[in-house]
Amino acid sequence: xxxxxxxxxxxxxxxxxxxxxxxxxxxxxxxxEVFVSSASIWEASIKVGxxxxxxxxxxxxxxxxxxxxxxxPVRAVHAALVSDLPDIHRDPFDRxxxxxxxxxxxxxxxxxxHLGAYTELVITV
Length: 125
Known about the structure:
Structural class: alpha/beta
Radius of gyration: 14 Å
Shape: globular
């Protein structure tokens, strides 16, 4: 299985948070490939700037490789697909992650149950 981690799942994974369930950890460990979107780093950067997240963004970038994950760049095809998505969820970062999951295709791991309405590619943990 090829996984794309939602931003919060990535943050939980690299901080070894107790919020990341055993099921989620096993899925990550067992996956053939695990991706982190550059959009997630962008989202974290914005939240750090707003004071909503206490994190070292440069460390988050370094942890992609250090964790054995792969960076998924945002491509034009991903951005364009966002306009075709139904208006289920307003968060622009989540919509972009859904578009990436659909385009690649990848299974998107999230704790946000609303995202499952987009596609069966979403795994809610």
